[in-house]
Design brief:
By secondary structure, the protein is α+β, with helices and mostly antiparallel strands. The chain has three helices and four strands, in the order βαββααβ.
Length: about 100
């Protein structure tokens, strides 16, 4: 059975693209080690470098909830607030 998918899109200030990229990249390794993490990938829009997307898959909703409370994500959020213009996050469950 497949898990919970999350798509999180961040638009950042153009002058903060490199800072954002570094903060986002720093999340990858510790997150992939978390219990229940099936997939955690970071993408950057080819036509808009200030737009990033995380595509995530978690085994259970509880695993995703624990990720949202993780120390490394909480630290990153402090930095994200200074450069994020817009955040769109959607969580999906597989239908078929």
């Amino acid at each position: 059975m497949r898990g919970i998918k999350l798509v999180a899109i961040f638009r950042v200030k153009m002058e903060c693209v490199e800072e954002a990229k570094a903060v986002f990249e720093a999340l990858i390794e510790p997150t992939r080690k978390e219990k229940g993490c099936i997939e955690y990938e970071l993408f950057q829009d080819e036509s808009d470098p200030a737009s990033f997307a995380f595509i995530e898959e978690w085994a259970t909703a509880e695993d995703l909830a624990n990720h949202r409370k993780s120390e490394h994500l909480m630290r990153a959020r402090e930095n994200m607030n200074s450069f994020t213009v817009e955040k769109i996050s959607s969580t999906y469950s597989l239908i078929k």
